[in-house]
Structure formats: structure tokens, C-alpha cells
Design brief:
By secondary structure, the chain is an alpha/beta fold. It has helices spanning 10-15, 17-20, 23-37, 51-55, 92-105, 116-120, 145-159, 170-175, 206-216, 230-233, and strands at 42-43, 63-67, 123-127, 132-133, 164-168, 185-189.
Length: 235
């Protein structure tokens, strides 16, 4: 996808070179261009389509959290699953993620939903679909992004040091069903949505389990506590 507003971190660009030259990615690019030409607003902005990859080079990946689609409200999506920009109301699923972190690790919930601090430490916050039309949930499903993000997960599975896959909800669990559980730690729980969090997301202990796995393999644990000032945490 050679849109001038879109760049990609070098290690991922090399790892995914074959995807970008594939016909499906050219079709996806044409779809996005056509949507913009008829006046559709697409989130996140083009420079943030690959923000999750830009912040977490392939050699740095320690954990993977999978989402489904970007938020479709104005000013919310910025390329990381579950994350919103500073100043934006914290979405309900992220509120529940913070509640579980407090139970698991004793970390008081952050007052913002900006998760770049996690991404910079090696938490790949990957949505399955990387764009959406304003106000139209799932509008870009089935256009090619799922194939691309499958390739990202496959690269992590095949090439990274042992990592933790934190798979919340049946969609994420199906998407990463091929991950090698002999090499990587695969943690499964219901989605943190208010509709399902009480069915086993609360009490799953995934944050402490992830750090225990990393430390057992000589890797630094994730500092899950977010900075109090999200603006100071930005690049």
C-alpha cells in the first residue's frame, strides 16, 4: 500500500513485503481510495493504519492482544486495539480491562485510554481490520485486512521469541487458532465487553500470567501501569 501518507516500520516492511505486492492488497488500496473519493470518512487517519506495527517492531514483540475493528466514532481510533486518544472517554471494554488489571496486579485504573506505553514495550495491539468508516461498525470487514493481519500473526508465531497471545473473545481465539502453543503462551478468556466480561474475563489473571511467562524466559516483564499524563507518553 504505497499511499504517500502511509509508512511502515522497517522490520515489518521487510517481513510483510510479499503481502504488499499481493493483488488483494492492491484491491484493498483501491477500495480505500474509492471510499475517500466519494467523501467517506475513514478512521484512523492514513498515517496511523499501521500504528501498532510502527510502535512494536517484530523483534520487540513480547505479547499480542487482538481486537476486531477500529472504533468508528470521531477522534477515537488511532491504530491500536482497545486504545483511544488522550481526552477521549474510556470505552467500556477498556474500563473492564483496567478493572481486571487492578484485581490482578493492584494497578489503579488510568484516567485515560491511551495505550501507547504498552505498545512501546512490546505489546502488539493489533486489530483484525485496520480501517473503518465513520459511524459504520464493521464497514471494512471482508475487504482484505483480515488476510493481512493473519500474515502479521503468522510472522510473530514463526519468527519471534516465545511471546504471550492474550486472546479475548471467540473472534480473537479463532483468528489465532494456528499459533504454536508449544512455543508460545496462549491465554484465552471471554471478551472484556460489558456483555461478556463477567463470564470469565474478570479473574482471568492474564496480566500477571504474561509477565511470569516472560520472566521465566529471561525477558523483561511488561510495565502495565500507564503514565498518569498520556500527553507526556506520546512520541
Amino acid at each position: 500500500m504505497s499511499d504517500t501518507s502511509v509508512s511502515l516500520e522497517e522490520s515489518w516492511k521487510a517481513a510483510l513485503e510479499g503481502e504488499f505486492s499481493s493483488p488483494y492488497m492492491q484491491q484493498l488500496k483501491s477500495f480505500l481510495v474509492a471510499q475517500k473519493q466519494v467523501g467517506k470518512r475513514i478512521f484512523p487517519k492514513g498515517s496511523e493504519y499501521f500504528r501498532a506495527l510502527d510502535l512494536t517492531p517484530i523483534s520487540n514483540v513480547k505479547a499480542v492482544i487482538l481486537g476486531q475493528d477500529p472504533y468508528h466514532g470521531l477522534g477515537q481510533a488511532h491504530g491500536l486495539c482497545f486504545s483511544v486518544r488522550p481526552g477521549v472517554r474510556i470505552p467500556p471494554s477498556l474500563v473492564n480491562i483496567y478493572k481486571e488489571m487492578e484485581t490482578d496486579l493492584g494497578i489503579a485504573p488510568a484516567r485515560h485510554g491511551f495505550l501507547e506505553h504498552w505498545a512501546k514495550q512490546g505489546v502488539l495491539l493489533l486489530n483484525s481490520v485496520l480501517t473503518v468508516e465513520e459511524g459504520q461498525a464493521a464497514a471494512h470487514q471482508g475487504k482484505g485486512w483480515e488476510r493481512f493481519t493473519d500474515a502479521v500473526i503468522r510472522k510473530v508465531n514463526d519468527e519471534c521469541e516465545p511471546v504471550v497471545f492474550m486472546l479475548w473473545g471467540s473472534y480473537a481465539q479463532r483468528k489465532a487458532a494456528f499459533v504454536d502453543t508449544a512455543r508460545h503462551l496462549v491465554l484465552r478468556a471471554p471478551h472484556p465487553s460489558p456483555l461478556s466480561a463477567h463470564n470469565g474475563f474478570f479473574g482471568c489473571g492474564h496480566f500477571s500470567k504474561a509477565n511470569a511467562f516472560l520472566q521465566l524466559r529471561g525477558r523483561a516483564p511488561i510495565d502495565w501501569q500507564l503514565p498518569a499524563d498520556p500527553h507526556g507518553a506520546q512520541v
